[in-house]
């Protein structure tokens, strides 16, 4: 495994089990020393989602879609939990391999790959890859003829946050048989079928149709001498706090029982937003306010519209509004119960008129220096963010409660030095403003034994203390 130098901001801060994200946010905000937008990422939420997945769909092995959020800590936690990975480029492949993940846990799930990326997959042993067109088959024949191929078919959900079928996926009835014949003539090894019903699927029954179509392709491939053993049911799984996986899981399980009862067929999926959406909470500071007063021509009543300018926008985290069709919900950090609500809009910090986060919403009258909180911001936000106009991309500060730490502490690729203990809120405040790697340790009354992976032998004892965040409020 490659060893890297970890900065304070790339480590996971362990907090008391009685503490949550809002407690950490409150401590940072109440310090009155912080102005930059920032994220709190709760690793425990990723672990919770994984447990739910394993309970609801035990047969389906998740291969996390790296493009959704490629934060190294997220990838390390998922690698420790045993997931596979869906990579779309050689850079994503390298990032996953650098964690010590075996290449057979990666599917190169981009049906249209540059030749250099195919060669790189061959060099790194990433054998499984998708295709949906004849040109791709000839490229693979030239650069990686030993690859294990998966034909991607198209089956679009009627409702989806992002439709993908217009770009990827061949017709299961007309195109797939032809492509399989070409692959056979080229001597290529096709091992299965994949599909993607659309990111953020709003029609669970689309999975039933797609799995049924996959069965048809499996059966046709058998007439050509192929013996498929892999079904990739793609992505599309919801990830917001209010969402549930159960309706989709039931349809998938029932469809697998009906169309793929053979346990020798390996079933994988490519969840992205499911794992990370609810793990990220974004805090933005109001730095400017413009009030627009309007007089009703009949009643002569004057109303006010408040334009709030915050320090993150559509060129930063809120690119998800433009590219991912996300609806974001602002929550004033202060308690606004009983306060009058006013017509409001929220704007990003750049000088571009396009930089509007929310066109119309109802908020209480807020002041400069107050905070707006946005939950469910972990998917397709930071990977696309840019420092346009000189405004920085928000930093991410990662937390985990004691139970999560206890689960992860001894599993590779995570090591003890990935975790920080102590006065978490105070150090979050300090590291938000600079990149200082210093850390203030408390008294040391607790001894924790760290064992080798797959071994009972003790390699080192670490003396640590967990501090209740409420002591610093």
Average pLDDT level: 84
Distance between the termini: 40 Å
CATH superfamily of the largest domain: Alanine racemase
Write the CATH fold name of the largest domain: TIM Barrel
**CATH class categorisation of the largest domain:** Alpha Beta
Tell me the major beta sheet.
10 strands, mixed
- The secondary-structure class comes to alpha/beta
Query: How many DSSP E strands?
Result: 22
* Residue runs with pLDDT of under 50 for 5 or more positions: 1-8, 423-473
- Helical percent range? 25-40%
The count of domains is 3
- Count the DSSP helices: 13
Shape summary: globular
Radius of gyration: 25 Å
Looking at the overall shape, the CATH architecture of the largest domain is Alpha-Beta Barrel
User: β content, as a range?
Assistant: 25-35%
């Amino acid at each position: 495994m490659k060893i890297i130098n970890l900065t304070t901001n790339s480590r996971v801060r362990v907090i008391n089990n009685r503490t949550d994200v809002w407690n950490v946010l409150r401590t940072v905000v109440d310090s009155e020393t912080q102005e930059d937008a920032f994220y709190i990422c709760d690793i425990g939420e990723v672990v919770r989602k994984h447990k739910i997945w394993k309970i609801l769909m035990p047969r389906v092995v998740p291969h996390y879609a790296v493009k959704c959020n490629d934060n190294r800590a997220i990838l390390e936690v998922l690698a420790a939990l045993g997931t596979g990975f869906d990579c779309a480029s050689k850079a994503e492949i390298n990032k996953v391999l650098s964690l010590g993940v075996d290449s057979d846990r990666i599917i190169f799930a981009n049906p249209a790959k540059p030749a250099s990326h195919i060669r790189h997959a061959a060099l790194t042993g990433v054998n499984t890859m998708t295709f949906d067109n004849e040109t791709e088959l000839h490229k693979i024949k030239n650069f990686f003829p030993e690859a294990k191929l998966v034909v991607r078919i198209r089956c679009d959900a009627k409702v989806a946050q992002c439709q993908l079928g217009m770009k990827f996926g061949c017709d299961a009835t007309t195109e797939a048989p032809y492509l399989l014949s070409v692959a056979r003539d080229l001597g290529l090894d096709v091992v299965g079928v994949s599909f993607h019903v659309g990111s953020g699927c709003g029609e669970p029954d689309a999975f039933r149709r797609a799995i049924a179509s996959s069965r048809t392709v499996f059966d046709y491939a058998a007439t050509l001498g192929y013996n498929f053993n892999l079904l990739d049911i793609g992505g599309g799984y919801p990830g917001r706090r209010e969402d549930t996986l159960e309706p989709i899981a039931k349809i998938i399980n029932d469809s697998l029982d009906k169309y793929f009862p053979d346990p020798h067929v390996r079933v994988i999926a490519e969840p992205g937003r499911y794992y990370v959406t609810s793990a990220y909470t974004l805090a933005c500071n109001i730095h400017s306010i413009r009030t627009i007063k309007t007089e009703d021509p009949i009643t002569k009543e004057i109303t006010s519209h408040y334009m709030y300018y915050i320090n993150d926008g559509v060129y930063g985290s809120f690119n998800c509004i433009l590219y991912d069709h996300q609806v974001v919900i602002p929550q004033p950090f202060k308690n606004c119960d009983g306060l009058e609500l006013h017509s409001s809009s929220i704007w990003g910090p750049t000088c571009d008129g396009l930089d509007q986060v929310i066109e119309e919403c109802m908020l209480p009258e807020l002041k400069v220096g107050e905070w707006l909180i946005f939950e469910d911001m972990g998917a397709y936000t930071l990977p696309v963010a840019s420092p346009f106009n000189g405004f920085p991309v928000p930093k991410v500060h990662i937390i985990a409660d004691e139970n999560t730490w206890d689960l992860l502490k001894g599993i590779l690729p995570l090591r003890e030095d990935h975790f920080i203990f102590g006065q978490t809120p105070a150090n979050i405040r300090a590291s938000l403003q600079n990149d200082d790697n210093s850390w203030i340790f408390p008294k040391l009354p607790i001894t924790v034994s760290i064992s080798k992976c797959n071994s009972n032998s003790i390699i080192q004892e670490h003396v640590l203390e967990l501090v209740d965040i409420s002591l610093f409020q």
